[in-house]
Amino acid sequence: MSVNNTPSAQLTAAGVPRAGGNGTLGRHTVSRIGYGAMQLERLHDDRDAAIALLRRAVELGVDHVDTAEFYGFGFVNGLIRDAFSADDGVVVVSKVGADPNPGGRIRLRPAQQPDQLRASVEDNLTSLGLEQIPVVNLRRLDAGPGLRAEGDQVVDLDDQLAALITLREEGKIGGIGLSSVTLDGLRRALPAGIVCVQNAYSLVMRGDEDMLHLCAAEGIAWMPYFPLGSAFPGLPKVTDAPAVITAAQALDRTPAQVGLAWLLHHAPNVLLIPGTADIGHLEANVAAGTIPLDDAALAALDAAESFSNDIRLG
User: Rounded to whole angstroms, how far apart are CA atoms 175 and 195?
Assistant: First the structure.
């Protein structure tokens, strides 16, 4: 019989060592490697496989998951509701600020008005089967790739935060985060008690470095989306960077694993939410949390070419 000498503080509620070690998300201690659930939409015709993937994440020490009501028009939230029990201790992070747009050229439409934010929170509560969503991110539309607000969807950040603060006071959400926010926007929002920021960020796309440092100073989790870049036109891919390929060969790991490992080493407040619909890729992503990067490897990766574009997608 083997003995697990991992301190209990490093274990998930399910008794598994946290993937990537301990991180802080508001009032929650979570695994530094979580799971981004958007790609579960690809398993719409294989619900059993989707549930199995989420259960495997728990087995691997993942205890926070990123989702949204507009992922699969509620399908993904339903999977999360059915896959996890209270005993798993999984912290669910959802987002508001957009609604499904069935039949449209772009699958999402802005939903930035305070009443729309409230409606989206209510929809998330219903589809997730929760009385409180631990963290809700406000998806702003003034930075990063994706939608832009026009007309009555151009809403003052203070009005949006007021709506979310009210929802927090009502107990419907536990913490407030921001997504696709500018540095000035984050500074304005700090008095509201922001617990995390989700912006597009990777080893080769570091335009928000000042914001990352501000988050670290304020105890705010930095949860990059597109942590390995993106296949969208104009966005760089981490796995194409020569320094990443060289490091991966030296470590006998994949370039994707090195890109994720660099993020964990780069700043202590980084929490990862890589997404996949494949259990093998999930296991590889979690294994990135065990990759050692010495000073020489980090220096070479830090020096890799990076750039930032403000690109609209769709």
Answer: 6
Give the helix ranges, DSSP H, for the chain. Answer: 47-59, 75-83, 114-128, 157-169, 183-189, 209-218, 242-251, 255-266, 279-287, 295-302
For 27-30, which contacts have Cβ atoms below 8 Å and span 24 or more sequence positions? 27/174, 27/175, 27/195, 28/64, 28/91, 28/134, 28/135, 30/63, 30/64, 30/91, 30/271
201 flagged as catalytic:
no
CA separation, residue 155 to residues 138, 158, 182, 225 (Å): 12, 9, 15, 23
CA distance 230 to 313: 11
Residue of 35, 71, 201, 225 marked active site: 71
Token representation of residue 24: 């802080």
Domain boundaries, the chain: 15-302
> Residue 299 has which token pair?
């220096």
The sign of the dihedral angle between the CA atoms of 133, 94, 206, 289 is: positive
Q: In whole angstroms, what separates CA 49 from the centre of its chain? A: 22
pLDDT for 230 equals 83
pLDDT at residue 254 greater than cutoff 60: yes
CA–CA distances in Å: residue 29 to residues 10, 24, 47, 290: 9, 5, 29, 19
Confidence band, pLDDT 50/70/90 cuts, at residue 29: very high
pLDDT at 311 exceeding the cut of 70:
no
pLDDT single digits (tens) 194-219: 999 999 999 999 999 999 999 999 99
Q: How far is Cα 67 from Cα 84, in angstroms, rounded to an integer?
A: 14
Provide the token pair at 217.
């100073």
- 15-302: what fold? TIM Barrel (3.20.20)
